[in-house]
C-alpha cells in the first residue's frame, strides 16, 4: 500500500511538471502600428521564465517575409545586405543584438530566393539569429519586445508581414532555415508560440502523405483545415530530393472554412526508386507556398517491412506495414528485457501499405520492441521509444 501511494504521488508530481513545462510558452504576436511600424511581441505564459533554470536561453531564429508587390520602390541594396529601408530597429534582447545569418553583423539582413540562384518566389525575407543573445527573466504575463522595425511609408503593406514557422525548400540546400524558433535552455524546448501573425495563412495544412498503392503507383494525398484566396495546387516530384518538377495540378476551393481533402495518383513510377513529393500551393494573386516534403517507394519482389511513425511514441503506436501480398499478422509488444506487454492477432494486411494503430497509454517511458509476425512466417521487428 505504501509503495502504491508513493507511485500515485510520483505520478501526480510528474503530471504537474509536464503540464507546467507544456504551459511555458512565449506567445508571440506581430502588431502593425500606424506608419508601417511593426512590433513582434512575446508574452510569457504558464509559470514564466523569471527564475533559474528557465531564465536561461539558447538559440533563436526570427524569420519573416514581405511580398515584393508591396515593396515599391524595391530595396536599394543588393541582397544579402543590411537594408537601409528598414529603420527604427529595436529589441529587448540582452547582450549583443541578434545577428544576421550571412556575416554575423549586428543588423537585420534582407535576402530573396535569387540570392542563392533560385527562381524568384515573389518575397523579400528578413532574418535575425542568435545563440544566447536572448531576453532574460520574463515573469508570467510579462510582455517584451522581441523585435521592432519600421518599413518605408511608400510600401503599402497592410497585413503582409508573415512570421515563418516552416522551412522554404529553396533555401534548405543552402543551409538557411526559415523556421522561427526561440529555444529555452531550462525547458530544453522551443517555446515560441505564434498566436497572431500579421499575414493570414492562405492554407492551413492538416497533413501531406505519399503511399504506394497496388505496388504500381503512388498516391499523394493532403488535407487542409481552411483555405483563403487559394487558386489550387501543383504536385511536384523529385528523384533526388533536390530538383523538383511539376507532375500534375489539382484545383483548390478558393475560400473554405471546412476540411478539404485532395489526392493525386502518380502512375509514372518505378520499383525500388525513392520519390520525394511536395505540394505547391498557389494564391489567386500568383504567390506560392510549399508543403512539407514526403517520400514513398515501390518495393521489388516479395517484401514485408514495418515502420513506426512517429517515433518517439506518446499514447498511440502507429505502424506502417508494407506487404507484397494480402495476409494476416499478429503484433507482439515487449520491453527490452522481453517482458510481454501486448499481443494483437488477426491484423489484416492489404497489398503494399497498411496503417495500424494500437494504444500504449499507461506504458512507462523507455525503449520497447514491436514484433510483427505475418501468416506466411515472415517476421519484422522495430524498436520504439515511449516519451511522455
Task: Explain what the structure shows.
- This protein has about 400 residues and is mostly beta strands.
- It has three domains: about 1-195, Immunoglobulin-like, CATH 2.60.40; about 205-295, Sandwich (Immunoglobulin-like); about 305-385, Immunoglobulin-like, CATH 2.60.40.2550.
- It is about 5% helix and about 50% strand.
- It has two helices and 26 strands.
- The protein has helices spanning about 1-25, 170; strands at about 25-35, 35-45, 55-65, 80, 85-90, 110, 125-130, 145-150, 160-165, 180-185, 190, 190-195, 205-215, 215-240, 245-255, 260-265, 275-285, 290, 295, 305-310, 315-325, 325-335, 340-350, 350-360, 365-375, 380-385.
- The strands form five sheets. Strands 3, 4, 6, 7, 9, 10 and 11 form a seven-stranded antiparallel beta sheet that branches.
- Strand 20 (about 305-310) and strand 21 (about 315-325) form a beta hairpin.
- The radius of gyration is 25 Å and the shape is globular.
- It starts with a helix and ends with a strand.
- Mean pLDDT is about 80; it is low at about 1-20.
- Structural category is mainly beta
What is the third-level CATH name, the topology of the largest domain?
Immunoglobulin-like
Our estimate of the beta-strand percent is over 45%
- Runs in which pLDDT lies below 50 for 5 or more consecutive residues are 1-22
Q: Quick one: CATH class of the largest domain?
A: Mainly Beta
Helix content: under 10%
> What letter string, H or E per element, gives the SSE order?
HEEEEEEEEEHEEEEEEEEEEEEEEEEE
Question: Can you give the mean pLDDT?
Answer: 80
Number of helices: 2
Number of DSSP E strands: 26
Shape: globular
Distance between the termini: 26 Å
Radius of gyration from CA coordinates: 25 Å
Q: What's the CATH architecture of the largest domain?
A: Sandwich
Main β-sheet, in a few words? Answer: 7 strands, antiparallel
**How many domain units?**
3
